[in-house]
Amino acid sequence: MIFLLYRKLKTKKLLAIFFVLILGGPTAVYADRVDRSIYSNNPIVAEVDGEPIYLDELKHIRVQEVLTRLYAMQTRALKEKVLARLAIKHPSLTSEQVPKVTDMEIKNFYNSNSGIKEMGSLAKVSAEIRDYLEKSYRQVHIEQQYQHAVRKGWAKVYLTPPNDFHLVAGLGTAMLWAEETASSNRRVFVLEYSDFQCPFCKRVQSTLKNLRKAYGDDVQFGYRHFPLPFHKEAKVLAQAVECARDQNKFWELQELFYDYSSTVSESEIMKLVRLAGVKDIPAFELCWRKGKYDQRIQNDIREGAALGIQGTPTFILGAYDPESKTVSGKMFSGAVSEEKFIRVIEKFLAATRVEANLNQ
What we know:
alpha+beta; Glutaredoxin; 2 domains; two-stranded antiparallel sheet; 14 helices; 51% helix; disordered N terminus
């Protein structure tokens, strides 16, 4: 929270520190690489019949997040190691001391941030502010020394960030909102992984309904199941919806299940099945009781887990390739706001328009 409040600082010294922290990040300057084989961020991790398997082939979104955090930790440690080795031959690097935090700076920081004041009086939080500013000053000092050493050519840096991760999700047997025809021109997709007993999944349904109304001509929407193990009836409800799909009533029953998410008894479920417009009740019951689509749901769970999905709802939003039946884009979790959906949808729609113009 304190870091976010930096944006409101008014003193020149603290503003300068803020911009150095933001603009002088770990990738700001790199020395020329003498031999790129010294370090690889995509090494061969195995060989099968003489064919290599690279690290990037093992990635999903969670692995990428871990690798990104690891890179940040390695970068911080590398800077300190570089400076420690240079200190003997280049004493000028260590002659300049880290600036001391003054009482006036602590007071200015406190007065400039209303959020800090909510934590208590100046006397109560001054020690925490001092500790934070001392760490910030030290980080800025190390960054300045490190960049100076690299520019002088005293150090050559081979550590590089992880390669960009491009999430590609297959649609599998996802239920599509709009019918696909030869003339369909939807090139953006919102793929939902959801659980009928998840309160956040229920909360986001109204947002998705608004998005389908607003973008139905340009964006395709799809639904896959990800019943969580501690929601005991979620898989039963998923199986029921798939059986309703046989009679073209998937979306009608899906909506009712979220509207009445506490419904778990068989009699209550059957009431909603009839309300959804399922006509052939004997066929539905046979499908449901025999678990006809249990394997389909298991496939959804397995493929979702392989993408790095851990909870619900999770959305994969991106460019849609109807030929390969894949979505390439970004992953979001939780009850995502309508505003965030719109920002990302518009971004991908703009990209598809540019691509269409280039292909004309």
